[in-house]
Structure formats: structure tokens, C-alpha cells
Amino acid sequence: MSLSLASSPLVWDTDLLKRYDLAGPRYTSYPTAPQFKGSLTSDDIKRLLQQSNAAARPLSLYTHIPFCDTLCYYCGCHKTVTRLKSRALPYIQGVIREMEIQSRYIDRSRPVKQLHWGGGTPTYISTEEMTLLMQATRQYFQLLDNDEGEYGIEIHPGQVSASTMQHLRNLGFNRVSMGIQDFDLKVQQAVNRFNSLQDVTRLVADLRRQQFQSIAMDLIYGLPFQNTRSFSETLHRVIELSPDRLSLFNYAHLPDKFKSQRMIRQADLPSSQEKLAIFHRSTELLQEAGYLYLGMDHFAKPGDSLGKALEDRSLQRNFQGYSTHGECDLLAFGVSSISALHDVYFQNTKDLAAYQQHVNEGHLPIEKSCQLTDDDQLRRYVINQIICHGELDFAAIDQRFDINTMLYFTNELFALTPMVDDGLITLSSRGLQVNNSGRLLVRRICMVFDRYLQQPSTEIRYSKII
């Protein structure tokens, strides 16, 4: 996808969107998390990491800090809500122990181009614990000291001080992602998430004074009591704050899956028609403000590294959404975190007590894994090309995977016929191109190439595309 297409006004056909707005994966990985069913031994991990060393790819590190002071009712993340700050230090010590175990098999000369702390609320931990964790990370891995790495952290803007952010900047963080969700007080009360416009405005000024390189903000549409007018007010305020990146997430109400969502009344949620109108107006406002629509729910300024990655075709999808540096191997630490090497994913246990026991006994806390087959790697590439670049070059796929793409995907290409007829894509002997009218439905296009969706399971529930 070119920068010109990314900045072009989106084609909005309500009837078409409703027809294709099915539930489906977000494709932060392929295969997706429900397919993580394998197990790995310590010898398997040692072998995989040695293979990773041989490939000499740079590293991306992710650390999951699950703790939160308060419960946000909409949240579907893996978290532990507690005000007992004493729980943090044993966990941080466990994460450091996990790093030490895994680093035994890693070539420490490999540079860490990306680093991210997610949660939960990473700023739940004290500044002393932040220092302890970052110093250990530097001890076991080769962090960049020239501020060229993309080192980011997720924060709750209503619960963090300027001094804490300065401390994080001094530790080497240069990027911040904050969850705004909505500035409307009635919405905030309904979801138990509070951060005022004054809080965020003051924090953004502090972050810019502290020379953070990138500020990202997350909003959620589809929350209780939202409507097009009120959400547009929030978005106007956000645009005035001028974040470098912005994500506009679709709230998926799944109270059977996420207990906290049972605190939200179905009757208070906007109708599907109103929800669609909210998203429509939001995309208009953001594009009018000069943001590029990267795909799905991500927007960025043209000069942001995501916009540059789009231009030089290094844009990728990973477990944090759209990202840069697709050449990195991802090593993840902490409860529930997922690592991704060339042809394998492995995920840590989601049970906090089990995690602590594993690392205290000197074992990696891996619970399940997914070894990618040749077919998985091919389809991952195809889905990534569609979702990040809006196109497929059949000749390039032929050469990369030594196949005849049109023969290999005969059934899938036939299944795309209705999308061709509806103008979502253009299909030829040379490749596939997502048209402007298909950009909002890129997840639906990717689903055609998902082999696992051809074996539907009643146990797997996905969010709607829009």
C-alpha cells in the first residue's frame, strides 16, 4: 500500500460493510493463539534459540507486567488487580530469573532494536523496581544506548506522574502508549476508567518536554453511553493533543469470556448502527487531521516510524498490533507473554503462581507452543502482506516459497470472487490488490487464506471486524 492510498479518504459503503462485517481474528499472529497447543522441552528451547543465533536476527524484547490498581470493566487483557504493591517485587525478581535462564542460550552481541513493557499497568511497579528490571535487561541483553532503539511502555495517563515518566526516560524509554478510551465522564464511570482531559494534556506536555520520541494514544468505540457526537468531542480533543500514533479499537462485548465485562450492561451499549457511525465519523476526522490509515484500527502521522515502515515495506503485525522491524526475533518474559522466533511461537503460563514456581525452580514457564509448518509460514506471509501492504505479488511468492501461487491457492482465489465483484479487491494473474473500498475489510480478506477457519470450532469466539 502506497502512502498516497494510506492518506486517501476511505470509501464508506454501509451496506457493503454490514454484509462483510463478520467475526474473525485480528491476525496479530498466524496461526492465531487458539492454535497454540504444542509443548516444548528445555532442549527444544535451547535448540530453537541456537538456530535463532545462527540466523543473527536482531531482537525485540517484551515484558508483561500484569498488575493494575483498579479494574477497567471493558478489559480483556491478562491482568491481576490488586493494591498490594508488595506483590510486585517477587514477580519482577521472577522475570529477571526468566531472563537469566533464557539468556544462557542467546548470543549477547545481538542488538535489541525494540523493547516494550506491557500489561496490566507497567507503571504499577515502583521506580526502584523499574530500575532493577531495566538494569537486569541490560545485563542479559545488548540494549542500544544511542536512543535509536524503539523502547516503549504502556501507561495509564490518570495514574502516572511526570517524575515517573522522567525516570523511565532516564532508563532508556523513548516511546509511550497511553489508553485514553474516552474523555466523556459518563462513559468513564460506566467502565471504571478515569483520566481527565486535564490529566492527559498535562502529561503530554511533560512527555514532550522530556523528549519522548513518540506518543501513541488508544481509544475504544462501542463502550456504554457512547454516541457519534460525544465520541467526536473526545476525538477532537485527542487530535488537538497531536499524538504520533492513534489506535481506534472496537469494543467486543464478551461477558461469558471476560468476567469484568459483566459489570457493563448490554442495554447501555450503542446500537450496531450507532457504533458504525462512530467509527465512520472517527476515520473522517483523523484523515482530515492528516493521519494515515494504516489498516484495521491503526493511524499514524506520515513522519512517524509506522508511516516510514509502510513506505519502505517493513511494516508488520505482531502481538502489539502494527509495528516496525519485522526482521526481529521476539523474546517475551512474564506471565502469559508470547515469544516468536522464525518458525515457532511459545507462550508462558497464564497462572501467576505457576509462573513464579517455574522460574523459582530454574525452569522456563512455557505452557504451550505452535511449531509452524511450511504451509503456516506461507499463509503467514500472505496474510501479513495483505494486512500490512494491501497487496500480493504472486511472482515474489512463487520465488520465495518455490510454489505456483495460483495453483496452491486455487480454492482461496475462487472464494475471493464475490469480493472482486463487489470491488473490494482486484485480482489478476500477477497478484492481488486491495482497493480503497476494501481497506476497512482487510481482516475479512485475510480470513479467506486462514486454513484453520476452514475447521471451525464452537469454542473459539472472535470480535466483529468493525
UniProtKB/TrEMBL annotation:
Binding residue positions for S-adenosyl-L-methionine 2: Y74, C75, G76, G120, T121, Q181, R193, D218, A252
Cofactor binding notes: Binds 1 [4Fe-4S] cluster. The cluster is coordinated with 3 cysteines and an exchangeable S-adenosyl-L-methionine.
Primary localization: cytoplasm
Cofactor(s) the protein needs: [4Fe-4S] cluster
GO biological process: protoporphyrinogen IX biosynthetic process
Family annotation (SUPFAM superfamilies): Radical SAM enzymes (SSF102114)
Catalytic activities: coproporphyrinogen III + 2 S-adenosyl-L-methionine = protoporphyrinogen IX + 2 5'-deoxyadenosine + 2 L-methionine + 2 CO2
Family note: Belongs to the anaerobic coproporphyrinogen-III oxidase family.
Name assigned to this protein: Coproporphyrinogen-III oxidase
Annotated source species: Cellvibrio polysaccharolyticus
